[in-house]
Amino acid sequence: MHILISNDDGVYAPGLAALASALGQDAQSICVVAPDRNRSGASNSLTLDRPLEAYAHESGFISINGTPTDCVHLGVSGLFSDERRPDLVVSGINAGANLGDDVLYSGTVAAAMEGRNCRLPPIAVSLCSFHPQHFDTAAEIVRVLVSKLESLVVAPRTVLNVNVPDLPLERIRGIHVTRLGHRFAGEPPVKVLDPRGRTRYWIAGTGDAADAEPGTDFYAVEQGFVSVTPLQIDMSHYSGMESLALWLEELN
Amino acid sequence: MHILISNDDGVYAPGLAALASALGQDAQSICVVAPDRNRSGASNSLTLDRPLEAYAHESGFISINGTPTDCVHLGVSGLFSDERRPDLVVSGINAGANLGDDVLYSGTVAAAMEGRNCRLPPIAVSLCSFHPQHFDTAAEIVRVLVSKLESLVVAPRTVLNVNVPDLPLERIRGIHVTRLGHRFAGEPPVKVLDPRGRTRYWIAGTGDAADAEPGTDFYAVEQGFVSVTPLQIDMSHYSGMESLALWLEELN
Amino acid sequence: MHILISNDDGVYAPGLAALASALGQDAQSICVVAPDRNRSGASNSLTLDRPLEAYAHESGFISINGTPTDCVHLGVSGLFSDERRPDLVVSGINAGANLGDDVLYSGTVAAAMEGRNCRLPPIAVSLCSFHPQHFDTAAEIVRVLVSKLESLVVAPRTVLNVNVPDLPLERIRGIHVTRLGHRFAGEPPVKVLDPRGRTRYWIAGTGDAADAEPGTDFYAVEQGFVSVTPLQIDMSHYSGMESLALWLEELN
Amino acid sequence: MHILISNDDGVYAPGLAALASALGQDAQSICVVAPDRNRSGASNSLTLDRPLEAYAHESGFISINGTPTDCVHLGVSGLFSDERRPDLVVSGINAGANLGDDVLYSGTVAAAMEGRNCRLPPIAVSLCSFHPQHFDTAAEIVRVLVSKLESLVVAPRTVLNVNVPDLPLERIRGIHVTRLGHRFAGEPPVKVLDPRGRTRYWIAGTGDAADAEPGTDFYAVEQGFVSVTPLQIDMSHYSGMESLALWLEELN
Question: Which ipTM value was assigned to this complex?
Answer without folding.
Answer: 0.90
